[in-house]
Amino acid sequence: MSKEKFYVVWSGVNPGIYTSWTDCQLQTKGYEGAKYKSFETREEAEKAFESSPYEYIKRSSPGAPAQKKDVNAPLPSSVVENSLAVDAACSGNPGAMEYRGVHVASRQEIFHFGPVYGTNNIGEFLAIVHGLALLKQKGFDMPIYSDSVNAISWIKQKKCKTKLPREPKTEELFKLIERAEKWLRENTYTTKILKWETKQWGEIPADFGRK
């Protein structure tokens, strides 16, 4: 097991000390002027949090550009950069399916699941629910982008309307679907689910690049 680290966020969505790199990323990626650093012990982190970040990180020179974003291409101005993009990929349809969520501004992968036997549309649906649950749990207010019209429609209906038969090899998948549908029925959320316009903007940042 890797040793636990402590992440101090001096400037971000919610400044504080975090024990997860994912939490640190969600607080800082896409946040202009974000300041953060990892420490080996909680004691070091607490001491650092009470101090100036410039005692631990280099001060930017006047006029220096903000932290470089790890992006593959510039994003159109109409895209909300501080957002989560989700996508699924399937080897065959049905076949080995996986999905993931990626922070749009930084292109950092936030979560990944699979592969499991299923279809692309089911993966897109599960990815959106995974994103909704994660953002609600963490208390983050950012939209989710999906390029799947079907999955967005299913989310609104709180029902995965797949025609895939339920049989032994799909039983694991259907248990995931039931759990996702249950979450949608029992939870409210303010997260906006937006359609990623592939023709105008190119592939969604969470795309697996297998086309």
TrEMBL record:
Chain segments annotated as coiled-coil in the UniProt record: none
Catalytic activity: Endonucleolytic cleavage to 5'-phosphomonoester
Reported cofactor(s): Mg(2+); Mn(2+)
Subcellular location: Cytoplasm
Cofactor binding note: Binds 2 metal ions per subunit. Manganese or magnesium.
Superkingdom of origin organism: Bacteria
EC number, as in UniProt: 3.1.26.4
Location of the RNase H type-1 domain: 78-211
Binding site for Mg(2+) 1: D87, D207
Gene Ontology CC annotations of this record: cytoplasm
Key word Cell inner membrane present: no
Transmembrane intervals: none
One MF term in the entry's GO annotations: RNA-DNA hybrid ribonuclease activity
A Pfam entry, by short name: RNase_H
InterPro entries hit by this protein: Ribosomal_bL9/RNase_H1_N, RNase_H, RNase_H1_N, RNase_H1_N_sf, RNase_H_bac, RNaseH-like_sf, RNaseH_domain, RNaseH_sf
Keywords: Cytoplasm, Endonuclease, Hydrolase, Magnesium, Manganese, Metal-binding, Nuclease
Gene Ontology BP annotations: DNA replication, removal of RNA primer
PANTHER family linked: RIBONUCLEASE H1
Protein purpose: Endonuclease that specifically degrades the RNA of RNA-DNA hybrids.
Family: Belongs to the RNase H family.
Name the record gives this protein: Ribonuclease H
Organism expressing this protein natively: Bacteroides cellulosilyticus CL02T12C19
